[in-house]
Amino acid sequence: MHITQDIRNIVFTGHTGAGKTSLIEALLFQAGETTQAGEIEKGNTVTDCDPLEQLHQHSLYVSVATVHHAGCHINLIDTPGYADFQGQVLTALSAADTVVVVINAAAGIEPMSRKIMEWVSHQHLPCMVVINRIDAAPDKLEQRLQEITDVFGRECLPLELPINHAAQVVEVYDHESGTADFSSVTVAHTALIEQVVEAHEAAMEHYLEEGTVPAAELHEAFEQALRENHLVPVCFASAKTGVGIAELLDIFAKLAPNPLEAPPHPFIRHKGEKTVAAWAIPDPDKPLLAHVFHVEFDPFVGKLALLRVHQGSLKLGSQVLVGAEGKPVKIGHLYRLQGKERIPVQQAVAGDICAIAKISEIEPDTILHERHEDDGIEMSGMTLPTPLVGFALRAKKRGDEQKLSDVLHKLVAEDPCLRIEYDTTANETVLRGLGDLHLRIALERMDKQYHVEVDAAPPRIPYRETITKSVQAQYRHKKQSGGAGQFGEVQLDVEPLERGAGFEFVNRIVGGAISGSLIPAVEKGVRQVLASGAISGHPLMDIRVTLVDGKMHSVDSKEIAFVVAGRKAFMQAVAEASPIILEPLVDLEVTVPAAAMGDISGDLATRRAQIHDAQADETGNMIIQAKVPLAELEDYASRLNSLTAGEGSWAIQFSHYEPTTEKTQQALMAQYKATED
Question: Residue 271: beta bridge partners?
Fold first, then answer.
């Protein structure tokens, strides 16, 4: 059984195609955990174990594997590289003590790697950069190292250098001299030692007095430099040839921080209306605090929750409390994960990563604890990107509606950047995500894993109708069919209100022309038209309807007669009041590299956007603020991604309604008329 000091939690991140999964395969093979290194093309890797990952040959979900090396228990967390799945990367960071950013030697720094380095800096997580696939671009390695330093800062220093034309690597922390493909071991060693001692006062004094400090005496200073992001070690490796893999295992065991050395992950505790910071102590004897960072649904064991034990120990058979409500549950299944393989364990100590199964109360971000005084504790939240791209979904088979709802809730539980919205007006279920690929993968999963077939279409734009002038309308409903008849007559004044005012119904009946008990029936008929629309099938808004007069019959006047009279009179009034169709406008904020400013502005102009501000932020990116019709943003996520090579981001918020274009109005009216006919 390992102890907290022996644990290393390493999350592998980087742009898609950088080779994260292949690196983990090489590490597993090197450590003797597998008999052969799996290949992505063959679909036999440990961490890309989902059928969709094997089909697409890319990581799509968080996955965990473990290696044992030099007495250390090293948890390796694989994450997706597509920007559409960045929510999974962000949640995985909450379980990590070290972030490895993998960069493709042939491609260089790519957009996802830039984003991750920003997150790492913001969260103050120890970080390493691994330049992978050095066999594919041995002549570009010096250039890549310089690019990393230029883009990510002078804190990025080589911990290794390639030698023999990238056929080997040499570690420069312990080695003080030697040759390399570029620079020299001596120069790299000196730079590394000087960077480390800068972060530690005692080590700096020793260095100034002696002129050098043996690397063996600098472990505490090295860990402090990592914690403070004063040092970002850069390593070189090739998952394909195995170069640098053994050295990388040694670096993880010797230099990557254990949970006692890593920065503590922040929690918050609610005290009344206030929140106060709280910190978990990675001591296995303290009261339990464990955080669920990922949930998935296994076809054999059901709900499977991946969690990091931040404090205390989680034991098989123990009773723990779940979330803010503190509901007690028993841990009946406790596993260590090796990809899709579940290895039963008796306990997980502070700092370790494990999985529990078949506890329905557990959701993403849940805290497991032992004391009711911890019921209100939460992991300090990180900001996740807002899902903006959507599909309106409808089950293809009648009777599958409930099954569709159940599956959608499972997908949302697994991915923090999927969201379900129910548009009652349009009678639509909308699934929103971060991009087209994000949603396509969700639809594939619904089909292949859960066997639910759906029709997917862009969600209906929430247009509205209104009127532009005041009118008066009168309608008499009279029906005689041999028995009891129906009679109701109403006179309405209908007038437009200012934008955003909503709807008002005013009763000005005097002298008992219509019984007070029948007035609600008139309003009911009016509201039926409000909900269904009059000219395009979209709800009406910003209208005042005043009931000014009417007639009733002592025998034939019933509620249904005045519902019909109210509806018909209101429809007649709308038709005469110069109705128009309104479209929703949103406030759009776009953040893009300065070089893409021209292309973005031009694209927004074609979308009828009104740009009202554009300025540079502290990183040099441009922030554009504009108002734009929501209907013009249907394909904006993919277009922005194309124009900025994946480096742009955007957010929207509803602003107000304005009249749509004449062309759109005519099209919507024609479409509605066709369905009515």
Answer: 274
- Give the pLDDT of residue 376: 84
56 and 197 inside one domain:
yes
Give every CB contact of residue 198 below 8 A, 6+ residues apart in sequence.
204, 225, 230
pLDDT in tens, 375-415: 889 988 677 887 877 899 999 988 888 999 999 999 999 99
Q: Is 20 found in the same domain as 35?
A: yes
CATH number (domain holding residue 451): 3.30.70.870
Task: Please report the sign of the dihedral spanned by the C-alpha atoms of residue 535, residue 538, residue 542, residue 548.
Answer: positive
Q: What is the CATH number of the domain that holds 316?
A: 2.40.30.10
Going by DSSP bridges, is the β-strand pair 367-369/377-379 parallel, antiparallel, or unpaired? unpaired
Give Rg (Cα) of the chain: 32
Instruction: Answer whether residue 421 shows pLDDT above 90.
Output: no
Q: Please answer whether residues 101 and 4 qualify as being in contact, where contact means their C-beta atoms are separated by less than 8 angstroms.
A: no
Question: Quick one: which of 308, 310, 362, 366 has its CA closest to 337?
Answer: 308
Residue 236: beta bridge partners? 131
Of the candidates 310, 365, 362, 306, the one whose C-alpha atom is nearest the C-alpha of residue 338 is 306
Assigned token pair, 15: 């742009």
Say if residue 251 is in the same domain as residue 282.
no
- 86 and 157 housed in the same domain: yes
What per-residue string of b and e applies to 126-140 under the rule 16 or more CB within 10 Å gives b? Answer: bbbbbbbbbbbbbeb
CA dihedral of 438, 442, 447, 451, whole degrees rounded to 10: 170
- Give 187's contacts (C-beta < 8 A, 6+ positions apart): none
Alpha carbon distance 220, 410 (integer Å): 44
Q: 350, 310 in Cβ contact below 8 A?
A: yes
Residue 677 lies in a domain: no
- Confirm if 496 and 470 have CB atoms less than 8 A apart: yes
The rounded distance, in Å, linking the Cα atoms of 651 and 536 is 29
**Could you tell me the CATH number of the domain that includes residue 601?**
3.30.70.240
CA 208 from centroid of its chain's CA atoms: 48
Instruction: Give me the pLDDT at residue 222, please.
Output: 97
What pTM was computed for the model? 0.80
13: which strand partners? 101
Determine contact, residues 377/429, Cβ cutoff 8 Å. Answer: no
Q: Which carries the bigger pLDDT value, residue 270 or residue 455?
A: 455
Task: Compute the distance between CA of residue 426 and CA of residue 381 in angstroms, rounded to an integer.
Answer: 33
Residues 450 and 570 placed together within one structural domain of the fold: no
Query: Residue 677: is its pLDDT beyond 70?
Result: no
How many structural domains are present in the chain? 5
Classified as helix, coil or strand, 283 is coil
Q: State the DSSP H helix or E strand holding residue 439, giving kind and residue range, or none if neither.
A: helix 436-448
Same domain, 360 and 241: no
If asked whether residues 545 and 509 sit together in one domain, one would say yes
The reply to whether 674 falls in a domain is no
pLDDT at 301 (0 to 100): 81
Q: Which amino acid is at 70?
A: A
CB 14 within 8 A of CB 23: no
- CB contact burial 284-296 (16+ within 10 A = b; e otherwise): beeebbbbbbbbb
Same domain for 189 and 92, yes or no, is yes
Split at pLDDT 50, 70, 90, the class of 530 is very high
- Contact present, 641 and 509 (Cβ < 8 Å): no
Cβ atoms of 546 and 491 within 8 Å: the answer is no
Query: Taking 60 as the threshold, does the pLDDT of residue 319 lie above it?
Result: yes
Q: How far apart are the first and last CA of the chain?
A: 74
CB-based contacts of 371, cutoff 8 Å, min separation 6: 287, 321
Confidence of residue 23 (pLDDT cuts 50, 70, 90): very high
Domain membership of residue 649 as a residue range: 581-664
